[in-house]
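comment on this one:
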Amino acid sequence: MSESTADGVERRLPTDEARELLALVRDIARREITPQAAEEEAAGRFPRELFVLLSRSGLLGLPYDPEYGGGGQPYEVYLQVLEELAAARLTVGLGVSVHTLSCHALAGYGTDGQRSEHLPAMLGSGLLGAYCLSEPSAGSDAAALRTRAVRERGEGSGGDWVIDGTKAWITHGGIADFCTVMARTGGPGARGISAFLVPGDAPGLSAAPPERKMGMKGSPTAQLHFDGVRVADARRIGREGQGFAIALDALDSGRLGIAACAVGLGQAALDEAVAYAGERRQFGRPISDFQGLRFLLADMATRVEAGRALYLEAARRRDEGRPFGRHAAMAKLFCTDAAMQVTTDAVQVLGGYGYTADFPVERYLREAKMLQIVEGTNQIQRVVIARHLVGPESR
């Protein structure tokens, strides 16, 4: 087991290749991400050109099969890459996580022909994906979605599907090159939903203005409107009616991505707080000398390390082919709650300066709140964990 230590983070990595990969990521973060992060977030700019660089560097398909242009990396390694990217700028780490989530359906449930046709471009040609499940009236109750796909049966139609409806809270909405879309093809409930791969420039597909968010201003989140969007049956992924199961499978892995991003954000806040505490002097000595503050830093560091251990345990279970859904929910719950507490404490360590935009911790605090909501609120994670423990609720 090789080891790598950088910026106070000790990593146990399974191969020399993984160690070199993490070194590449840290170099890209240092040169291309961190210097522009504060300015671009304040201006609400999404670093589209950076994602082209990440794609060319092989970082947008890390957990997928090399046969289709993926990196062939275990989740244990992929998630640590996400953590490093999120520590540099959450918009980037989350963007890579969402792109990976958007490729999951095709990689896991597509036919060999579908994968050969579409996956290489999705993983290595600079494309950016969006994952379209939530709707204005179907968030936590995703099985209640109303976006409908109707198959044309007329002569010359080729069995195409026509999609109508609205998706909400879509990361990369309006800028994505492709969308993995869950739409109703049958009756009500989970069994009436199918999955489709929709081009981002499909006629009839449009985006509303981006949401005006408290944080993550550089990451566009928007509603997508489907108005008679025609999709060939060859772009349906999996069986008719299998879409909701595909969506939930993707979310188990996606929640690990959110957990890793949360740990990266927490690590960034901790590093900023430790550096400030060593430099700031009051009463003739560094504030890091005061026990109250030392205990605060110790608790912050413990939360970050515990979160890292939890998401890595879930990742290793996934890599070994063992059930990991409960552990993924636990990791998402704990790591995002920890990020919220650690970023709040970082602001407290910096005092009045922490409340200003002159230091990044106020941005970290605003960003951490979002992580407790996306890809299943933390209340939903508790529902998932409890069902694993004591079974489904009585009806």
